[in-house]
Amino acid sequence: ILGGYEAKPHLRPYMASLQLDGQHVCGGFLIAEQWVLSAAHCTEETDGRVFQVLLGAHSLREPEPHKRLYRVRAQIPHPGSNIHNNKDDLLLLQLEEKAELNAHVQVLPWQREDRDVAADTVCEVAGWGTISHSGRRPDKLYQVERPVISRDVCNHRTRHDGTITEKMMCTDSRKKDSCKGDSGGPLVCSGVAEGVVTAGSRVCGNYKKPAIYTRIAPYAAWIDGVMASAAG
Ligand SMILES: O=C(O)c1[nH]c2ccc(F)cc2c1NC(=O)[C@H]1C[C@@H]1c1ccccc1
């Protein structure tokens, strides 16, 4: 998170850190007791290794009473995701067991109505991603508020030049922005997850390149289908 500030501990009990060998790789969030949603690109350089999911954390390193690392039973990238673009950049992770819900671990409601969030709506994004242009990695969760910008503005030729589909949305990236390591985390508008930070490599904090999120509502059927088929 660039230009943001340390989050109040445990006010975002849905936040997940996707880790390999104890290292934070991407964000994610709890959408059901046994399911975390993140970004498919995050599995690119993992040569098939399976993530572990840290829940209930504020600090990545310090011991905290409700922090718990969960094994992952299944990692399911959206079938349309690919390394060449940001399309269908979603990843579902089934935990080995249902997460133990408490004040520090909670599910985040996600938008099912497929309708664009109005431009200028102020949403919030949080993560353990880089907090400086030099790539400083925080130990604590950071957050920042960002206004949604219209798809037309985001698709301007000097910005993302027509690559933003109706299944994506953008927020203003002037100074304050999500960045590497925040990918997979939720864009939360009025307490509901509307988008997932895309994990394609992208410059951060430059107003010419707005932040891109995968909208969740268009994928409701896929998400429900995967969770239903793997249930039990
Ligand atoms: O965050 C992303 O957009 C992104 N997209 C990817 C694609 C492949 C891939 F193997 C990883 C990523 C990855 N995450 C990262 O590089 C994470 C490791 C870096 C990081 C940044 C800040 C704080 C902690 C750790």
Task: Tell me what the structure shows.
The structure is a single chain. By secondary structure, the protein is mainly beta. Helices cover 6% and strands 32% of the residues. The chain has helices at residues 151-154, 220-230; strands at 5-6, 15-20, 23-32, 35-38, 52-55, 68-77, 91-95, 122-127, 142-149, 168-171, 186-189, 192-197, 211-215. The strands form two sheets. The protein has a six-stranded antiparallel β-barrel with strand order 8-9-10-13-12-11. Strands 2-3-4-7-6-5 form a six-stranded antiparallel β-barrel. Strand 11 and strand 12 (192-197) form a beta hairpin. The longest helix has 11 residues, at 220-230. The mean pLDDT is 97. Bound molecules: the ligand O=C(O)c1[nH]c2ccc(F)cc2c1NC(=O)[C@H]1C[C@@H]1c1ccccc1. The ligand O=C(O)c1[nH]c2ccc(F)cc2c1NC(=O)[C@H]1C[C@@H]1c1ccccc1 binds at residues 24-26, 41-42, 44-46, 128-130, 137, 180-181, 183, 199.
